[in-house]
UniProtKB/TrEMBL annotation:
Full protein name: Cation efflux family protein
One Pfam family here: Cation_efflux
Record flagged with keyword Methyltransferase: no
Organism: Salegentibacter agarivorans
InterPro entries membership: Cation_efflux_TM, Cation_efflux_TMD_sf, Tmem163
Length: 203
């Protein structure tokens, strides 16, 4: 293996490690905030981020495998299992968010203000563009479709962050009680798309 590629692989692996650490914190904080505030959008965002953790960890594991010269067939086999898990997880997330959001729309439940949720959303708006930049950078350097795809997933996560933040602010600033469940429902198409893409990659 070329020294330059090995160096880039190490940097990309480190990037994924930090990605997993941050996303794990994001999941914990947003889940607590969402449950406390009765926010479908925050809970849905947290669940989606949970799958992002799995995805980032898997990619980091694959990069580590290449660095260590592991058998490619074993890597592919484990990748396939992971993709099935991700696809199934996204399906469950879509079902949960849809049910929870529609139920709250019918009952007209209103999410309460969450300072914790606001803080983690704003931090994510700062962190995610940085992650996207470096994932694209090393994705191109390593000619890694997986890393470039992960950058795309992070971009989708950035979009979801904006949507959830907008929902949170609209509920509390304008009193639009329906904004939170609607924001949550807007996550569903993207979660479904990511789940389907994960499933098709297993074929």
């Amino acid at each position: 293996m070329e020294a330059k590629r090995k160096k880039d692989l190490k940097k990309a692996r480190t990037l994924q490690i930090w990605n997993v650490i941050y996303d794990t914190i994001e999941v914990i904080v947003s889940l607590i905030a969402g449950i406390t505030a009765n926010s479908s959008a925050l809970v849905g965002w947290a669940l989606d981020s949970t799958i992002e953790v799995v995805s980032a960890a898997t990619l980091g594991w694959r990069l580590h495998g290449e660095l260590k010269g592991l058998d490619e067939e074993k890597v592919k086999r484990r990748k396939k299992i992971t993709l099935y898990v991700i696809a199934g997880s996204f399906t469950l997330v879509c079902i949960f968010i849809s049910y929870d959001s529609i139920t709250k729309l019918i009952s007209q439940e209103t999410a309460s203000w969450s300072t914790m949720g606001l803080i983690i959303l704003i931090i994510s708006l700062i962190i995610n563009p940085i992650l996207i930049y470096f994932k694209r950078k090393y994705g191109h350097k390593l000619d890694s479709p997986a890393l470039l795809a992960d950058a795309k997933d992070t971009f989708i996560c950035l979009y979801q962050t904006v949507v959830v933040l907008a929902g949170l602010l609209l509920v509390n600033w304008l009193g639009w009680w329906w904004a939170d469940p609607v924001a949550a429902l807007l996550i569903v198409p993207y979660a479904a798309k990511e789940g389907w893409e994960a499933y098709t990659k297993t074929r």
